[in-house]
Q: What sequence folds into this?
């Protein structure tokens, strides 16, 4: 049985990946700073967990020892003074790739994001593009997945939108016309399993979006309809959001950042000319069909 180390395997996506890999018959080693056994794991499941910081080469070397594949699903969404996007998404991602190659491990999957671009005004988006390049430099055959915004049970995306529907009116980012392609976390986990299987397809870079491209306001409409609530959607100019993000920046854990506002201003849609779910023979779940599972705790 092949052992796969999943860095970030306690996170939203990493945990789904770990579960999918176990279901497919792999052994899984979950590596995170606060490593805990997942609640879905049965005592007989071939899952272990190990405390490891992706920035620390010694703990990374221990975490990947004897593995036949490695997945990097580590996140950093908000920078701190002592922890920058480049630390996690570039330097640490490249170090993991280098150590994986040096250990003779043949498969590495790196989770990035749609829109990765070195010229972006967002430090987060720039770091994702620089991270991809650094990973490929260290491990040229690395497989890179760029998902659109993820949803699923216990996610951050739909849960936040559901909380917004409690307000008397819902503020939009701009006019709410930014296009998203929400993708079920399980579908991305299945894509990782497919790439780590015995006959992976030839492409190494994938953009993964769900079956429908939706404007932000369409997603809100679906959530409102599902929750049987009616609320006005109120356009709020991006300049106002930038001002709010600036004010929020003084807080130790800002609820809104400049990078998030920039992300909400640009479409997050898979490039149809790039490999995606069709190449992987995966039919992704539609958001609307998944709302009961995601919002009703079903
Ligand atoms: N969620 C989305 O909508 C979305 C969309 C597109 C792309 N992505 C990408 O998908 C990946 C996973 O995102 P997610 O939303 O699943 O993240 P998440 O829920 O925040 O989980 C992050 C995981 O990374 C671990 N981690 C963080 N810092 C670490 C460190 N220094 N060393 C080792 N492990 C560390 C966390 O555990 P500890 O804190 O215990 O270390 C946790 O297991 C990220 O690359 C993200 O950018 C996510």
A:
């Amino acid at each position: 049985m092949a052992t796969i180390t999943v860095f970030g395997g306690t996170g939203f996506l990493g945990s789904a990946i770990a579960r999918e890999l176990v279901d497919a018959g792999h052994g899984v080693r979950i590596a995170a700073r606060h490593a805990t056994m997942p609640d879905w794991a049965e005592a007989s499941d071939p899952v272990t967990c190990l405390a490891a910081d992706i920035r620390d080469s010694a703990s990374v070397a221990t975490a990947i020892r004897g593995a036949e594949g490695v997945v990097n699903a580590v996140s950093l969404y908000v920078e701190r003074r002592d922890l920058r996007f480049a630390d996690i998404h570039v330097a640490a991602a490249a170090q993991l790739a280098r150590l994986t190659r040096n250990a003779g491990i043949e498969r590495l999957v790196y989770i990035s994001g749609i829109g990765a671009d070195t010229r972006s005004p967002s430090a987060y988006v720039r770091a994702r593009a620089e991270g991809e390049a650094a990973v490929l430099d260290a491990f040229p055959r690395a497989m890179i997945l760029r998902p659109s915004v993820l949803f699923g049970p216990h996610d951050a995306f739909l849960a936040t939108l559901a909380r917004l529907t409690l307000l008397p009116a819902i503020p939009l980012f701009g006019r709410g016309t930014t296009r998203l392609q929400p993708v079920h976390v399980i579908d991305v986990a299945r894509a990782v399993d497919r790439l780590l299987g015995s006959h992976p397809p030839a492409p190494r870079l994938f953009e993964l979006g769900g079956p429908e491209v939706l404007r932000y306001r369409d997603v809100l409409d679906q959530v409102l309809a599902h929750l049987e609530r009616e609320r006005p959607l109120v356009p709020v100019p991006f300049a106002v959001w930038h001002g709010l993000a600036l004010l929020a920046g003084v807080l130790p854990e800002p609820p809104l950042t400049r990078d998030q506002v920039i992300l909400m201003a640009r479409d997050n849609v898979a490039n149809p000319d790039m490999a995606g779910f069709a190449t992987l023979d995966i039919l992704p779940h539609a958001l609307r069909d998944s709302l009961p599972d995601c919002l009703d705790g079903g």
